[in-house]
């Protein structure tokens, strides 16, 4: 629009200057000024036409990445935790994933797949160190069964693993036991890097568990 206004003003000035140059005595300076204004008018009009012919292209903004913080906000999760899957879900051992504690469930995200574990189905949630797991594991057939009953497949994984002498890290694990079609099953994660957050999840899960009566 600016080019058009400038062109119109320049055109008016050119016409006036040309009329003056005709009626006034011959003056080379006036003639050159009129020609210069005429050229300027043509240039401005050509620029306006070129600018008008261009179509404005809007580059779409990239979609915001679904970061763990954004995912936690979308789920209204009170706790988010990065962990390594150990056993219980259809993903490899030590596969990185995120856990989100929601009002009524624990959501486990791995790449583009999510798993929902309703808190109402969780029968127990604990954080155990590998030392505690090993102390409950006996390297015999009967002991292996007992270890499996206590911690699910994690009992056999950790209990039967030989600890390297140079590895001084004491690994910690978050273990869920839950009701799966009337039977007790287990899901476990390596949460060595952040056991405090894992314990918050345990506390919340236990707070939602109704009192149970064990018949002897």
Written description of the protein model:
It is a single chain. Helix content is 44%, strand content 25%. It is built from seven helices and seven strands, in the order αααβββββαααββα. The protein has a seven-stranded antiparallel beta sheet. The longest helix is centred in the first third of the chain and has 26 residues, at 28-53. The termini are far apart. The relative contact order is 0.12. The model is unreliable at 143-148 (pLDDT under 50).
Order of helices and strands: HHHEEEEEHHHEEH
Largest sheet: 7 strands, antiparallel
Mean pLDDT comes to: 77
- The radius of gyration over CA amounts to 38 Å
Which geometry do the CA atoms define? Answer: elongated
What is the number of E strands? 7
The CATH class of the largest domain is identified as Mainly Beta
CATH-assigned homologous superfamily of the largest domain: Pleckstrin-homology domain (PH domain)/Phosphotyrosine-binding domain (PTB)
The class by helix and strand makeup works out as: alpha+beta
Low-confidence stretches: 143-148
Work out the helicity level: 40-55%
Q: What is the first-to-last residue Cα distance?
A: 89 Å
């Amino acid at each position: 629009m600016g080019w058009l206004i400038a062109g119109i003003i320049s055109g008016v000035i050119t016409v006036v200057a040309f009329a003056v140059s005709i009626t006034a005595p011959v003056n080379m300076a006036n003639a050159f000024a009129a020609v210069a204004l005429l050229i300027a008018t043509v240039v401005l009009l050509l620029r306006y036409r070129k600018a008008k012919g261009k179509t404005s292209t809007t580059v779409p903004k990239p979609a915001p990445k679904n970061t763990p913080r954004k995912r936690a906000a979308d789920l209204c999760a009170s706790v988010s935790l990065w962990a390594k899957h150990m056993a219980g879900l259809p993903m490899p051992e030590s596969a990185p994933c995120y856990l989100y504690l929601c009002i009524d469930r624990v959501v486990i995200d791995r790449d583009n797949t999510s798993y929902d574990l309703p808190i109402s189905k969780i029968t127990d949630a604990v954080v155990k160190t590998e030392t505690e797991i090993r102390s409950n594991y006996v390297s015999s057939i009967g002991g292996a069964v007992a270890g499996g009953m206590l911690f699910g497949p994690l009992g056999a994984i950790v209990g039967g693993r030989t600890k390297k002498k140079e590895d001084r890290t004491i690994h910690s694990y978050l273990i869920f036991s839950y009701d799966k079609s009337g039977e007790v099953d287990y899901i476990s994660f390596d949460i060595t890097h952040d056991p405090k957050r894992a314990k918050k999840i345990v506390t919340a899960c236990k707070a939602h568990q109704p009192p149970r009566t064990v018949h002897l």
